[in-house]
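Task card 7
Instruction: Convert sequence to structure tokens.
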Amino acid sequence: MQRGIYIVANDRVADNAIALLSSLRRHDPNVPIVLIPFDQRYQGVAERLQRYQVSLFPDLAFLEAFTQKIGEIFPKDFLALPNKMRKLAGWFGPLDDFLYIDTDILFFGPVTETLAYLEQADFICCDYHFKGRGIQDIFSQRVIDDGIFTPEALQDVFNSGLWGSKKGAISLEQMYDLLQDCAQHREYFDFSSGTTDQPIINYLVLKAIPRRLNIAKANPSEPGSWGGSPHFEQRDRRLYDGDRPLRYLHWAGTPMRPGGPYRTLWEYYRYLDDPDARSVETPPIRKSWRQRLSAMLRKAR
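Output:
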């Protein structure tokens, strides 16, 4: 059995990917890590991540066909960034047990310890979305009114930046059927904050995978992980919530720019294996028109 990690990236997020991989390899030098290209602009990041023994998703033809199928299922105005759905390809890739990790994350311990929770369930996550934001950024009130999920199931909602599952826990035919359901019921989802994959993947998991485990529920001492929490303390290149070491930090919409929260820690991991890159100025990234419009709408509220 092969147990490992998937990331989705392109050249635009190469710096974040390097910081994440640097933090992962500090504790787990040998765990398999597979890059799923976000789009066609991935050759640069793939080359730069070779130093971290990252392999490329082996079936790019499947990935392209999968992306095309999703484009056929959903109306063009349904998903803000359709390629974010490529993370779903993890269920059909080379890893038997896998953890998916967004690139705006740093890990502070052996990721194999998190993967080990898959011995208890077919799907895992580790966050407090259910406790803080509830169904916000995932479902609308309509799913409650129509009884689409039980109240107990809705307690299993999760942030889609870090989660794990098993190859084949959802079949490809089953996934396409569930995606068709999603496409026919836009009213079930909360896209108001600009999310794309998070509402859809929650629908898939709650419908198709009954054996679920949230580490934050299973482990009473599990600390938080959100980069917008200001109270974490840095010691020995990791963060602590009081005396509890964080498993990981996820910026999750929190600015990662210079001067932003925990930026110095991100810079440590970004330049740990590449100190000369500090002298290279990174050009600013222009936001897409969808991102600019979303920001304007949020300010107008």
